[in-house]
Amino acid sequence: MNVILYAKENEISRRVLQTVESLFSRRRVDYCRSISELSLRLCQPVHNALVVILMARDRAELEEIFSIQYLLRDVRSVLVLPDHELESPAKKRLQPRFITYMESEYLIVEIAAVLRSMLEIIVLQKRDRIARWQDRVQNWIPYRKMYVH
Questions:
Q1: Distance (Å, rounded) from C-alpha 71 to C-alpha 133?
Q2: Which end of the chain is more exposed for a tag (fewer CB within 10 A), N or C?
């Protein structure tokens, strides 16, 4: 699983980045400090599952994130908002998997827990796809032998 963290440089974003890097290898974590950098990264091909952590310090940063919402349509996202009053428009426009707030005492713990859960779900989905593929292959082989003479 690859993780992209979008945040302006500050103490909270550094702590979140350290936590994410401790959960995943550094090569699987990208840190984008600007919307243009984030949009370029989202336009690159993705070979693994992708999770984006979006941290908005104020309404202006949230509006910047809204400007690239079409790139976030099929991406699992975690949204960190400055306050509760911005939750409704953000939910509707970005459809994140999880929302938390900058002032939350447990911000780092919440993000780590959500990322672990997402990773577990992705692993289970991958195992399920592999099992279904193996079933198809095993069920197909006897029919093939029946028609080959």
A1: 30
A2: C
Higher pLDDT, 18 or 142: 18
**Left, alpha or beta for 81 (phi > 0: left; psi -120 to 50: alpha)?**
beta
- Give the tokens for residue 70: 């079409």
Dist. CA 127–CA 102, nearest whole Å = 35
Q: What pTM does this model have?
A: 0.81
- Count of structural domains, the chain: 1
143 pLDDT band (50/70/90 cuts)? low
Which CATH number fits the domain that encloses residue 57?
Answer: 3.40.50.2300
Contact in structure between 50 and 78 (CB atoms under 8 Å) = no
Biggest alpha carbon–alpha carbon distance for the chain: 72
